[in-house]
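Per reviewer request, we include the raw input and output of the structure prediction for the construct analysed in the revised manuscript.
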Amino acid sequence: MQNTNRPTGMFGFTIVWLGQIVSVLATNMSAFALTIWVFQKTGSATALGLVQVFFITPLLIITPFAGVMVDRHNRKLMMMVSDSVAGIATIAILLLQAFGILQVWHLYVAAIFQGLGNAFQWPAYSAAISTMIPKEKLGRANGMMSLIDMGPGILAPMLAGALLPIIGLTGILSVDVTTFLLAILVLLYIHIPQPRRTEEGAQAQGNILKEAAFGFRYIFARPSLLGLQLVFFFGNLCAGIAFTVLTPMILLRTGNDSASLGLVQSAGAIGGVLGGVAMSAWGGFKRRVHGVLAGWAISSFFFALMGLTKWIPLWVALNALSSILIPLINGSNQAIWQSKVAPDVQGRVFSARTLIAWMTNPISPLIGGTLADYVLEPAMRTSSGLSSVFGWLVPAGPGAGMGLLIFFSCLGGILAGLAGYFIYPIRHAEDILPDHEQMVPAEAA
């Protein structure tokens, strides 16, 4: 093992975590402010959805190759590259806004580069945790990582809403750029061990196309891993449609009240933080598959109910209840993969699982935005057709069609979670798959 005076292990991971949570807070503030800016400019759910499409499409295209680079090269370097690419895109938006020439299509271009950066970020960070943290602490470490996803969302909408009238969009983007530089400095300070080489890693070596395909071969050869990813595939498809129209639904039902939108989003973030804190302290169910399957079903149930009301306090409660389970879902699933897949191939395997789980993400915003703008919203505003069938279910008025779409798409998420209990390789994934600690090192093979 390499001797170093730089922080590593749980302490080093915590330092990285602190740097990331500050950076993500500022990024979420920028995202909130830009969402309001885009909707005020266009009034279109499709326009908001297109930002997601331009972000996720290049991410998915490059992800298999990003996984190869993560496994081939120093993982700390890959983490820094991912942060830098996303940061440069934010700098470009800041400059365009500062000169008063920012257009909606500029955000689409920036989203492409942010997606490219994130293609490296997730497999690099996930694989790095496996080499820094012992198996028994993976659930807690992933609970802390979930706080990065959910925690900043508590303050970001409120801070962005409060600061927009004072420092404007330019000021918020400036804060974002400053914090991404801080996150890179933190990565320079800590030590991230490289993984030991295993027999599976030796078998995966070859040209970049062979190594990129290895992750998919690995997953498809293991029905339990493939089954878990298919749960996320169908769950993400349904959730993506619902999330695409949630913000415009709330804005339409509240008369473009950004404070109400911020309150609902903050409630979801609070729920996510509570779930992340619980996951960090508890570590999840001993049978982690229950956290994945039951979590998907219950979280989707609460989210489905959000489409059936226009009462802000109920939105707040339901979003919190739905979000509180997200750290349990993601943390449990992540711990399964981190303990079952050899660390020296995790970059490729985790990139492949990202592509499988997220390949619907470019489609779901288009489905959600198109159905909302051109089908369901117009149909629910007339006295005949859909409104005569579902008018009793969804409150009438602007946003009714989007509420109906949220309800039915989330029913699909419920079914995705429950279906896993009826499929043996998924339900017993932890028994079928050996821990990677039991695998033979390459030099001993």
